[in-house]
Design brief:
Distance between the termini: 65 Å
CATH superfamily of the largest domain: Aminoglycoside phosphotransferase (APH), C-terminal lobe
Shape: globular
Number of strands: 18
Largest sheet: 7 strands, antiparallel
Structural class: alpha+beta
Strand content: 15-25%
CATH class of the largest domain: Alpha Beta
Strand order of the largest sheet: 6-7-12-13-10-9-8
Radius of gyration: 23 Å
Low-confidence stretches: none
Mean pLDDT: 90
CATH topology of the largest domain: Aminoglycoside 3'-phosphotransferase, Chain: A, domain 2
Number of domains: 2
Number of helices: 12
């Protein structure tokens, strides 16, 4: 291991590297400072200068700050390297370590060995879940490049290591939920095999997980678009099963009344009021800044108060049921079709929300609403992405079949009593999701604005069920 402290990396080089990454989550905000808070050496990383797990703090001019995880490899400065360079220091080149097979392989070894590694401010600890990893020494190690907020490495098409980049204090919801569901032997998630975490003065946080890799599966979004293009019925016949799996997942997550983290709780008028207040402030923020010149926004321009009034009415009539831990960001991109059945993945929750928000118990209908909005997205996006016509009844049939499957398997005590009460609460959550989508498309994909606009307009036109 190189006798080099990566805390000495040049600040300007560190800022340039971090802000250029796809996983950097604050691209619209200007950084004031960046520094390495902690650098924990990894033993036996298989590279010339070794590797470290670094915790990097970035600070903004507003006074706020974020913490990111870097996995840093070190090579002699004179050596050629094809990896992304972070910076130079004391005769060594620091580079992005996950692209070098030996470094993620060492992380996997440490997890299998329940190892620890000490830094100056705290300690890394590595844990196997009790499900032995099927890969001892991988022959093939490759990095996935499709992700936005994290980084993932696949071992022999058998295991996947997900490295969390932006860190928050506390257990990551994905680890928490996967550990619970794996212990319950719930068959519709990729098996959790292990994780690693850091505890120390800068932060206590989950850093990454290892789970089963399902490489030959199609995610629900790909499956839906492919079916719309060739054979819509092929997708629709699987939607009811997706609803059943979702109901089974919620039933499993609500199955342990002795665990306070997962025990179902009665929904209160106060919790619904807080939800409505949160959506209300989001509506005010988004609708206040709607640009007048964008034609796609025409159907909802000036209707912010109408959306807020609808939410207030719903808050008085949509009550009942129970709150549980849920998926938190449920849509077609978070489910996989294996050819035989559905698997649910990516339990982190919505990345724009704080970790404490993502760990809150909510009505399971919030997940259901997310999937219903995803059907709307698939049917509206197909003409944009593929240039194909979508059957007029595609979205409605998908909604009906999914709900039929869901209601057949979910524990009914988790839901409000009666069909009308369920519809009312679903409307609240669909409005919440559509307003969230509106903000996202304004910032990222203005060509897709018509999709959340149509959803908001439909929910307003329908009135209170």
């Amino acid at each position: 291991m190189a006798d080099t402290d990566v805390r000495g990396l040049d600040e300007a080089a560190l800022i340039e590297f971090v802000t250029s990454r796809r996983w950097y989550g604050s691209k619209s905000r200007e950084l004031a400072h960046a520094s390495v808070l902690e650098a924990v050496p990894l033993p036996g990383s298989g590279t010339a200068g070794g590797a470290v797990v670094a915790l990097v703090e970035v600070r903004f001019h507003t006074g706020t700050r974020d913490t990111y995880q870097l996995v840093v490899g070190l090579r002699e400065a004179a050596a050629e390297t094809t990896e992304d360079v972070i910076g130079e220091l004391e005769g060594w080149t620091a580079y992005e370590g996950l692209g070098s097979p030996g470094i993620p392989t060492e992380l996997l070894r440490l997890i299998r060995g329940h190892a620890t590694a000490a830094g100056e401010e705290g300690e890394l600890s590595f844990h196997e879940s009790g499900q032995p990893t099927p890969v001892a020494e991988p022959d093939e190690v490759r990095t996935l490049h499709a992700e936005q907020s994290n980084s993932s490495v696949v071992f022999d098409d058998s295991l996947i290591l997900k490295v969390y980049r932006r860190l928050e204090a506390g257990i990551n919801p994905e680890l928490e939920l996967l550990r619970f569901l794996t212990a319950k032997e719930f068959p519709h998630v990729p098996v959790l095999h292990g994780w690693y975490e850091y505890a120390g003065r800068p932060i206590d946080a989950t850093l990454g997980i290892v789970q089963q890799y399902v490489g030959d599966a199609l995610d629900g979004w790909e499956l839906a678009l492919d079916a719309i293009q060739s054979d819509p019925e092929r997708f629709l016949v699987r939607v009811r099963r997706l609803g059943e799996v979702t109901g089974l997942m919620h039933a499993a997550l609500a199955s342990d009344s002795g665990d306070p983290v997962f025990a179902p709780e009665d929904a209160s008028g106060e919790s619904l009021g807080l939800l409505v207040a949160s959506v209300d402030s989001e509506v005010e923020r988004v609708f206040l800044d709607l640009p007048d010149e964008v034609s796609a926004l025409g159907p909802i321009v000036g209707r912010g108060e109408e959306v807020r009034d609808q939410l207030r009415i719903l808050s008085h009539v949509a009550a009942g049921g129970r709150v549980i831990r849920g998926h938190g960001d449920y849509h077609l991109g978070q489910v996989l079709w294996t050819g035989d059945d559905w698997l649910v993945i990516d339990f982190e929750g919505e990345p724009a929300r704080s970790l404490s928000e993502r760990r809150q118990k909510r009505s399971p209908l919030r997940d259901v609403a997310g999937m219903l909005r995803s059907f709307a997205y698939a049917s509206s996006a197909a003409p944009i992405v593929l240039g194909v016509e979508v059957p007029d009844d595609f979205e409605q049939r998908a909604r009906e079949d999914f709900l039929a499957g869901y209601l057949a398997e979910v524990d009914g005590s988790l839901l409000p009593g009666g069909e009308e009460a369920i519809e009312r609460l679903l409307t609240v959550f669909e409005l919440e999701k559509a307003v969230y989508e509106l903000r996202y498309e304004l910032d990222n994909r203005p060509d897709w604005l018509a999709i959340p606009v149509a959803g908001i307009e439909r929910l307003l036109s329908a009135g209170v069920p």
